[in-house]
Every structure is written in structure tokens, then in C-alpha cells.
Amino acid sequence: MKISAIITFLIFTCSATNYSQTIPIHKTNEKINIDGDLSDWKTSFLGPFVIHNSGESATQNTFVSLAWNDQNLYIAYHSDDSKIVGTPQKKDASIFNTDDLVEFFIDPDGDSQNYLEIGVNAFSSNYDLLLKCISPNCGGWNTTMSFDIAGLETVSKITSEGYNTEIKIPFSSLKTIKNGNFNQPKAGTKWKGNAFRIDYGNTTEYLALQYHKSLKHGFHQPEEFAVFEFME
Q1: pLDDT per residue as tens digits for the range 105-125
Q2: Can you tell me the distance from the alpha carbon of 121 to that of 156, in angstroms, rounded to the nearest whole number?
Q3: Disulfide: which of 2, 43, 119, 147 matches 67 by Cβ 3.0-4.6 Å?
Q4: Do β-strands 72-80 and 62-68 pair in parallel, antiparallel, or remain unpaired?
Q5: Residue 74: count of CB within 10 angstroms of its CB
Q6: Helical (H) or strand (E) element with 125
Q7: pLDDT tens, 169-188?
Q8: What is the pTM of this model?
Q9: CB-hemisphere CA count at 13 Å for 180?
Q10: CA distance 185 to 162
């Protein structure tokens, strides 16, 4: 099935996911190749994304799907994009300031500290950022780009409609986060986090799967992160 047909179907089946109680991560026994080709992706897509601090409709659609097995978390994005902004860049470049990209935030223990931000642009360039603390209650803004997710895989593929992105995050790498309180997920495990996109095309838009009710600017509002639940 062509991606355009898939996304047309998703618009009618998955458009009511914003501010759902939980966002499902379905377990899979299928082999997932990280190649940017979504034609073999089996798990339902969620979306479309909305403006991150208002819930208003975005200019261009974004959908995301999540899956897991005993070793890895998998994330797939489909981003409509009529004007892709960006270039191939080195690992851990600050592409969030310049390039169209998708982002995923993970806070396994939900305490708003020691959580991860992963970003990937349309050319497969990525960064992984550890946010140790962003609140005055724990010492203020303290982040590091030196933390690397061992085994992280990211591939984007430019299409006639925009670009697709696939991400693989090994659970084993999350065990190394100091004070991250990571435990191997099982059915029923709940994590905090969110899926985002920055679109620098004709109109700059900051988009989210679940928007922030506080109307604050910026993606880093961990107290308002969505809840992801691992499902069988």
C-alpha cells in the first residue's frame, strides 16, 4: 500500500488522539528495519500533531507510531512537508535551531529529571540530549549533549510528500542514565514523554502529539508530558 493511501486512512481513524489518557506502545514480534520505509510498518499511527501550546491545527500533517519488543523501543514518523529545510549534519549538531526535524522525549520514571530528548532531521542527522534538571527545584537548567544512546539508530527518507523517519532505542542504553531509575518495561509499564516536530518551512511551527494546556512556549514542560503505556 502506498504511504499516501495509508496516511489518508489514518486521518480518519487516528485524529482524536490528542489529550488521550494514555498513548499505547504496542508490542511486536515483527522484524523492524530502520530504513525510513514505512510500507511494512504494522502498528497504527497517531495524530495528526497540533500546535504544541494551543492544540490548534498544524499547516502540515505529522503522524507517529510506536512499537516495542524485549530489546528496543521503535518510533516511526510520517511528516508531510512541501518545503524541507535542512542539510546532512554531524552527530549532535544543534539541528533543532535550523532544520526541519522530529523529536521524541522519554522520561521513564516520570520525575521530570534525567530525561532524554532525541531529534532527527530529514537527512538522518541526529542528536541525543540528556536533561538532568530544568527546574529551580533541582538546581536549574542542567543538560548534556555528551550522553550517547548506545545502539541508537535513526534513518529518514525523503518522499514526494515530505519525509519519513524511523528510530530504534535499545533499552539497554537507558540503564546507564544516572538517577534515571530505568526498569525494563513490561505490559502495563507507563512512561512519561511526548512526540514533537519542528517545521521551519513556509511558516515556523512547533508541533506536538499531545499539546501543553499551560500555553507555555517550549517543548520542555515535563510536568505536562503525555503518558505512554506498553501494551501486549
Answers
A1: 999 999 999 999 999 999 999
A2: 7
A3: 43
A4: antiparallel
A5: 21
A6: none
A7: 999 999 999 999 999 999 99
A8: 0.92
A9: 22
A10: 33
